[in-house]
Amino acid sequence: MILLLSHFPSPNVELNLAQVRIAISRMTLPEDRIAELLVPFLEGSALSNAQLESLHAYLDLLLKWNSKINLTAVRNPEEIVPRHFGESLFVARQLFPRPIAESVIDVGSGAGFPGLPLRIWNDAADLTLIESSQKKAVFLREVVRTLGLDRVSIETARAEKAAVRAELVTLRAVERFDQILQTAHGLLKPSGRLALLIGESQVKIAQSALPDLDWQSPVSIPLSQNRTLLIGAR
User: Fold this and answer.
1) Model confidence at 16: pLDDT above 70
2) Which domain holds residue 171?
3) 20: nearest Cα among 30, 32, 5
4) Which ranges constitute the DSSP H helices of the chain?
5) Domain for residue 105, yes or no?
6) What is the dihedral of CA 200, 69, 123, 189, to 10 degrees?
């Protein structure tokens, strides 16, 4: 990657490593490059122009806000797109081969993954993002406002205190995995589905912790060495 001096506040100031990292983190990607990076996760499916525009705007906001609050440890947009957007869209495509009206809860949403890309993929879904961090919740509200997403709500409470229930609950690998599994399970409506984006080593933990669910075979995440999608249904 070639960095031009125009990317920095003043070309006369000697650049240090921290300034270079900041400049890289603020660089965005064109929509055609985003689409190219997402190809392995879509497996032949195509995003509409409107969906690509939304993902582009989302990425811009993430890069901007990530310099203020810690939303993701991944800083390079070339890595952010596959790691966060790609994996989230892969999950969305597995869960929703076609748009369908369904209530969804994303537990511990953080920077909005996989919940917001899932909502961009399936615009018929009613989405609730549960995020206890006030700062991250403010970011999520800004993304929802900027993208003009309707039927999306953000709850700034701990998941175990949430009163909402949904037909689908999503969860990425988080701290206190055993405990949050039970909480996520409790948010399911009858006949609901639980979708876990986790490491391969956590598959047996989930299956043992929630034996009442009918677990599908784990699905490996593209371009990942050990992350997998595990879906269980009541």
Assistant:
1) no
2) 18-233
3) 5
4) 17-26, 31-42, 49-66, 77-80, 87-95, 115-121, 134-147, 177-186, 203-209
5) yes
6) 60
Amino acid identity of residue 78, one-letter, is: E
What CA–CA distance (Å, rounded) separates 160 from 28? 36
Q: Tokens at residue 163, please?
A: 């009163």
Non-local (6+) Cβ contacts of 134 within 8 A are 156
Structural domain includes residue 189: yes
pLDDT in tens, 87-131: 999 999 999 999 999 999 999 999 999 999 999 999 999 999 999
Q: Per residue in 173-191, pLDDT tens?
A: 777 888 899 999 999 999 9
Here the tokens at position 192 are: 């609901």
Cβ-Cβ contacts under 8 Å for 151 (sequence gap 6 or more):
125, 126, 127
Question: In the predicted model, is pLDDT for residue 28 greater than 90?
Answer: no
How many domains is the chain partitioned into structurally?
Answer: 1
The CA distance from 121 to 85, in Å, is 11
In a domain, 83, yes or no: yes
* DSSP letter, residue 217: P
State how far the Cα of 171 lies from the Cα of 231, in Å rounded to an integer.
10
Q: Is residue 86 part of a domain?
A: yes
* Residues 100 and 122: beta-carbon distance below 8 Å: yes
170, 115 in Cβ contact below 8 A?
yes
Report the CATH number at residue 84. Answer: 3.40.50.150
